[in-house]
Amino acid sequence: MPLALTLLADVGYGLAWYRLGRLGHRWPARRAACMLAGSLGAGIALLPPLASHDDRFEVHVIQHLLLAMVAPAFLALSAPVTLALRTLPRRARRALLRVLHSPAVSVLTAPATAVTLDLGGLYLLYLTGLYQAAERDSVIHAAVHLHMFLAGCLLSWAIIGIDPIRRRPGTRGRLAALFIAAAGHDTLAKLMYAWMLPAGGGPAADRRLGAELMYYGGTGIDVALAVIVMTQWYLAAGRALARTRRRSAVAGP
């Protein structure tokens, strides 16, 4: 399901990019590259060879890092909603804006909601018998992957997303949400290592290796996200300073 959603997004993104070019407007190539990178990350996580060995816990953790952290981060930086708003017909654009500004979307994209859904799903998966159930039931397995992907997308959109959302928090709020998510992720990895979890995760060595991958891999990705947030702040501050200087120049001495 996450792969199908990503492929549909790729098709829509490509068509919108083509339409924007036909209208005579340019779209940053780096954003299209981010869409491609996010789709590639999801594909690597869900297709062979990783998908052929996801019964091994360390492989599952690599899937988790790609599907819930790497791919959503790149997709958030590709600004698909902004591209849609620039290419959709007027009526569809107004409908999309009404959805984006609705109370339900505001709640879903709030950092507190995104962090809760992301960490809550992970703790439920690895500290209970859900992981073992997912290994036995393909429907539960697919639902787990879908939740990982969607929760990761919500968190990435809330922290580093550049699409217009209602009441987007400032830099401090986004860094605080990232810090809480990173601390929760690291704590979970330590609990898994200390308690030899999850149940059904295979040999003890595999579970410990998986916990180590989750800890160090997640920390590396979180640091990269923090760098992105600070870079966005720096660029936004530079643009604000440039606007102030232009207004001062127009106003004169």
Walk me through the structure:
By secondary structure, the protein is mainly alpha-helical. The protein has one domain. Helix content is 81%, strand content 0%. It contains 11 helices and no strands. It has helices at 2-22, 29-46, 57-77, 80-87, 90-100, 103-108, 111-127, 130-136, 138-159, 171-195, 204-251. Helix 1 crosses helix 4 (80-87). The longest helix is centred in the last third of the chain and has 48 residues, at 204-251. The protein starts with a helix and ends with a helix. The relative contact order is 0.11. The model has no long low-confidence stretch (mean pLDDT 90).
How would you describe the shape?
globular
Taken as a percent bin, the fraction of beta residues is under 5%
Question: How many structural domains are formed by the residues?
Answer: 1
**pLDDT averaged residue by residue:** 90
Number of helices: 11
Low-pLDDT regions: none
Work out the helicity level.
over 70%
Radius of gyration based on Cα positions: 20 Å
